[in-house]
Amino acid sequence: MAVLYRKYRPQSFAEVIGQEHVAQTLTNSITGKNISHAYLFCGPRGSGKTTIARLFAKAINCEKPDGAEPCNKCSSCMEIMQGRSMDLIEIDAASHTGVDDVRQLIEGIKFAPVKSKYKIFIIDECHQLSKSAANALLKTLEEPPTHAIFLLATTEAHKMIATIISRCQRFDFKKLQISEIIKKLEFIAKKENVKFDDSALSLIALNARGSFRDAESLMDQCINFSGSGATVKTDDIKELLGIVEVGQISKFVDLLISKYAKNSILFLNEMAEGGVDLPEFAKTLVFYLRECLLLKINPEFLNAKGSGLSGEEIEKIKSQTAGLTDKQIQNMLELFIDAENKMKYSSIIQLPLELAVIDATNAE
Ligand SMILES: Nc1ncnc2c1ncn2[C@@H]1O[C@H](COP(=O)(O)OP(=O)(O)OP(=O)(O)O)[C@@H](O)[C@H]1O
Ligand SMILES: [Mg+2]
Ligand SMILES: [Zn+2]
């Protein structure tokens, strides 16, 4: 089966989701023929940096562009899509250990393009360039040949040397929104002819944490798990991801609300003994309490699509929080956010949760 993230990598600016600010400025510079020698794409993983870098490269070397869009038919476009263009050199600074190779490659930008208008370098994870390679890059950026374009991408801009950053036009990519991810997942599901339960796609999107690559690989796993032709169920995804059952969280919140400190702690022990991943439990609990708070403030904030919760679960939250004030839920939320953070450093992983339980069950 095809790997989704390769199959559905956008081939035109129109297919890019989110990142409107980036796409807009880049397409304007293409149509206005106002192209810089160096761009820096910063932002979270799987947000489209490499995708947009390749698109931009393709568009500026395209023989028959349609406005700012590459034609995806000419020999230059084809070569880029097949990864065999002589005028587009991609370097992954993270995996390239041959320090001198990289330096030589960068210095090679002096030579004119083989057949296209521009010779383009995409340097991924450029914060990891070796010192000598970074210096070679800096020297080239100080006096770039007219045919040369550098597209630098990084998830960690703060680790780059300032002199390189200052010579680039910088774009900050955003984490993709859940609703944006869902939209593209729906599109892929249709194309792949796979059915998903209503809240299944939301659950995938939610667990991708803003990275489209992660969303697509989760989707891959789900399709493989359920088999083609079947409907992918929300429960399958939960099992696959080791997601803590919302039902369990809900029971735990019942105990907290009833102020049963002893039973709440016993419950945690049972969870831990039953193999539940406690950090995952804490994360889901915080997520759940947030939904409780949102629902309390305004029921319209919560819908099955955006939260990954089923209608039943939402009804349950409603009855559960009926007797509580906003402030009480807020306090609980703050206690468990704090516990979640402290778990990262605690030698007894359960302890921060237990302390939060005691505070929560003693609260007014
Ligand atoms: N903004 C987006 N619109 C549409 N699809 C996207 C977008 N961002 C990412 N994708 C999808 O996710 C996959 C990975 O994206 P890409 O390689 O561009 O991410 P990246 O930002 O370079 O991540 P990394 O920092 O991990 O290299 C792409 O193949 C594409 O299918
Ligand atoms: Mg990348
Ligand atoms: Zn073309």
UniProtKB/TrEMBL annotation:
Catalytic activity: DNA(n) + a 2'-deoxyribonucleoside 5'-triphosphate = DNA(n+1) + diphosphate
SUPFAM superfamilies: P-loop containing nucleoside triphosphate hydrolases, post-AAA+ oligomerization domain-like
Domain AAA+ ATPase: 35-176
GO biological process, one term: DNA-templated DNA replication
Gene Ontology terms: cellular component: DNA polymerase III complex
EC number: 2.7.7.7
Protein family membership: Belongs to the DnaX/STICHEL family.
Function in brief: DNA polymerase III is a complex, multichain enzyme responsible for most of the replicative synthesis in bacteria. This DNA polymerase also exhibits 3' to 5' exonuclease activity.
Subunit comment: DNA polymerase III contains a core (composed of alpha, epsilon and theta chains) that associates with a tau subunit. This core dimerizes to form the POLIII' complex. PolIII' associates with the gamma complex (composed of gamma, delta, delta', psi and chi chains) and with the beta chain to form the complete DNA polymerase III complex.
Descriptive protein name: DNA polymerase III subunit gamma/tau
Organism: Candidatus Staskawiczbacteria bacterium RIFOXYC1_FULL_38_18
Source organism phylogeny: Bacteria, Candidatus Staskawicziibacteriota
